[in-house]
Amino acid sequence: MSNKIQNPEKNFPVTWEELHRNAKALAWRLADHAKWKGIIAITRGGLVPAAIIARELDIRVVETISVKSYDHQTQGEIRVLKAASAVEDGGKDWLLIDDLVDTGKTAAHVRKLLPHAHFATIYAKPAGRTLVDTFITEVSQDTWIFFPWDLLPVSYLQIER
Ligand SMILES: O=P(O)(O)OC[C@H]1O[C@H](OP(=O)(O)OP(=O)(O)O)[C@H](O)[C@@H]1O
Ligand code: HPA
Ligand SMILES: [Mg+2]
């Protein structure tokens, strides 16, 4: 069953620089918490934010949980392709990192698997906002966020080959 996002009205492209600044801001918010056992990145979108946060908080243990929900802008069934195998106690004292929460389906699914982990994202849309413990920037539900890893860097276009 697929749930087509109704052509989001607003495009919100994010540059590497903005992403980096926001990921650092998220790390600083998380720095006050007790000592984290490690980070669980929700792949693939959580990988880059998790890398930045791991460096900023000096966390060296980084696990992954692999979850697929979207094909381009169309949401399908949630599929966990790989579990976070080394994580115990339902994720207690672990940081779960994703790039964003949209409908909240991914977050709800992962929360069931790791109910005690602290869930943090850079961006949040209203439908999923209550499912994350910490986020930096809220955007409206009718916005589609374009991450820099899915965009062609402008500078590449300026290089003559
Ligand atoms: O709140 P939701 O509506 O569930 O959407 C949020 C999820 O969708 C995207 O992942 P996606 O499934 O596209 O895979 P990706 O991380 O590999 O891009 C994004 O990275 C979140 O994990
Ligand atoms: O707004 C979005 N941008 C990129 N990926 C996404 N996955 C769900 N919503 C989004
Ligand atoms: Mg994802």
Bound molecules: 1-O-pyrophosphono-5-O-phosphono-alpha-D-ribofuranose, hypoxanthine, magnesium ion
CATH architecture: 3-Layer(aba) Sandwich
CATH topology: Rossmann fold
Helix and strand composition category = alpha/beta
| Number of contiguous helices | 4
Q: What percent of residues are in strands?
A: 25-35%
Q: Biggest sheet: strands side by side, in what order?
A: 1-5-4-3-6-7-8
Mean of all residue-level pLDDT scores: 91
Total separate domains? 1
For the sheet with most strands, the description reads: 7 strands, mixed
Shape type: globular
Any idea of the CATH class?
Alpha Beta
Radius of gyration: 16 Å
Which helices and strands occur, and which strands form pairs?
Blueprint: E1 3-4, E2 10-13, H1 16-30, E3 38-43, H2 47-56, E4 62-71, E5 74-82, E6 94-101, H3 105-113, E7 118-124, E8 134-138, E9 143-146, H4 154-158
Parallel strand pairs: 2-9, 3-4, 3-6, 6-7, 7-8
Antiparallel strand pairs: 1-5, 4-5
Helix pairs in contact: 1-2
This protein binds 1-O-pyrophosphono-5-O-phosphono-alpha-D-ribofuranose, hypoxanthine and magnesium ion.
How would you describe this structure to a colleague?
This protein is α/β, with parallel strands linked by helices. The chain has one domain: Rossmann fold. The chain is built from 4 helices and 9 strands, in the order ββαβαβββαβββα. The strands form 2 sheets. The chain has a 7-stranded mixed β-sheet, with helices on both faces. A two-stranded parallel ribbon has the order 2-9. β4 and β5 form a beta hairpin. α1 packs across α2. It starts with a strand and ends with a helix. The structure holds 1-O-pyrophosphono-5-O-phosphono-alpha-D-ribofuranose, hypoxanthine and magnesium ion (MG). The site of 1-O-pyrophosphono-5-O-phosphono-alpha-D-ribofuranose (PRP) has 18 residues, from β4, β6 and α3.
